[in-house]
Write a structure and sequence with these properties.
The chain crosses the membrane at residues 49-69, 81-100, 112-133, 145-168, 180-204. InterPro entries: Pr6Pr-like. Keywords: Membrane, Transmembrane, Transmembrane helix. Helices cover 76% and strands 0% of the residues. It has 218 residues and is mainly α. Helix 1 runs antiparallel to helix 3 and helix 3 (53-70) packs across helix 5 (109-133). Mean pLDDT is 85; it is low at 210-218.
């Protein structure tokens, strides 16, 4: 891995970490998240912060990028699944935020900056890093299946916690808004998008492997 590649991943790691740190500071200070009108106690705010898919996907990106910035590469199922979840998760974060959540927001100042970093800047940097800079782990049916464990577990846990506490991190998961049918349709659509993104990465991997093989001398 060249120094330029490591530098890119270092940049991604720093930006993702800075975005998470900024959001943490804002939450500690009582910053508003999405459409919350009141400020809950600090321990509740911190618990809710780590419950957001956005925060978890940015954290995965920061961890994966920091490792790639320090080491030549990594192999193995666990690492591949982490890398896939980071890239697909952050891509999904950007897409869902742009389509479903941005119309609900009216953020200013540091809140708007944190929002842009978490939902726009980090997704763009991470995707460019995966597609253009590399390295890209080989996607198999097994690793793709294992990569689905995290988002499905997050979804199940979020719905259960929401039913118990009455708090949902995103309005489209709240059955009190438009009913369970709308929640179910949204969950199926987002899960299908996650699977489609995994399929796109798998296709990219196969085409890249084929192209590299074709360029090799006979």
């Amino acid at each position: 891995m060249t120094s330029r590649v490591r530098s890119w991943h270092a940049l991604v790691a720093v930006v993702a970490a800075a975005a998470l740190l900024l959001q943490l500071v804002l939450v500690v200070q009582g910053g508003r998240v999405l459409d919350e009108q009141s400020v809950p106690p600090l321990e509740v705010r911190l618990g809710r912060l780590v419950s957001y898919f956005t925060v978890q996907s940015n954290l995965l990106v920061a961890l994966a990028a920091a490792h790639l910035a320090r080491h030549r590469g990594r192999d193995g199922t666990a690492w591949t699944v982490l890398r896939l979840d980071a890239v697909v998760g952050i891509t999904l974060t950007g897409l869902v935020h742009f389509v479903l959540l941005r119309p609900l927001l009216d953020l200013q100042g540091a809140d708007a900056l944190a929002d842009a970093m978490l939902h726009l800047v980090v997704p763009v940097l991470a995707v460019v890093g995966f597609v253009v800079v590399g390295p890209r782990p080989r996607v198999t049916r097994r690793t793709a299946g294992l990569a689905l464990v995290w988002p499905l577990a997050w979804l199940a846990w979020t719905l259960v916690v929401g039913l118990v506490s009455g708090w949902f991190p995103y309005p489209f998961l709240d059955h009190r808004e438009d009913g369970w049918a709308a929640v179910a349709i949204t969950c199926v659509a987002i899960t299908a998008l996650f699977v489609a993104l995994l399929g796109a990465l798998s296709l990219l991997d196969r085409r890249s492997s084929t192209g590299s093989h074709e360029r090799q001398p006979a």
